[in-house]
Amino acid sequence: MTHMMLAALIAINVWTIFCFGQDKARARSGGRRIRETDLLGLALIGGTPGALIARHLFRHKTRKEPFSTQLILIAVIQCGLLMGWFIF
């Protein structure tokens, strides 16, 4: 993995954590929320670790369905792809 790829991966995960935190703050204040599809999209493009950390850190969207199932499915697929990449 190149330094640029690692930097991009770190950046997307930091951004994902920030977005989950913003959504939690907006939920508390009654503000305009971040769409679940946008949060899942961040996970899909590499922000899954950040999403899982943010869910725990902010206690946000931990029981929300089908969001939780979709996020876990993204994580499982990404882990499978990563394992396949290392094996082959």
Q: How would you portray this structure in words?
A:
Keywords: Membrane, Transmembrane, Transmembrane helix. GO terms for molecular function: nucleic acid binding. The chain crosses the membrane at residues 37-58, 70-87. Pfam families: DUF1294 (PF06961). This protein is mostly helical. The protein has one domain (3-87). 81% of the residues lie in helices and 0% in strands. The chain has helices at 3-29, 36-58, 67-87. α2 (36-58) packs across α3 (67-87). It is globular. It starts with a helix and ends with a helix.
Jot down its keywords.
single chain, 88 residues, mainly alpha, globular
Rounded mean pLDDT is: 95
Q: How would you sum up the global shape?
A: globular
Distance between the first and last residues' Cα: 15 Å
Structural class determined from secondary elements: mainly alpha
> Number of domains in the coordinates?
1
Helix percentage: over 70%
Tell how many strands the DSSP assignment holds. Answer: 0
Please tally the helical runs, counting DSSP H or I stretches of 4 or more residues.
3
GO molecular function, one term: nucleic acid binding
InterPro entries: Cold_shock_CspA, DUF1294
Pfam families: DUF1294
Keywords: Membrane, Transmembrane, Transmembrane helix
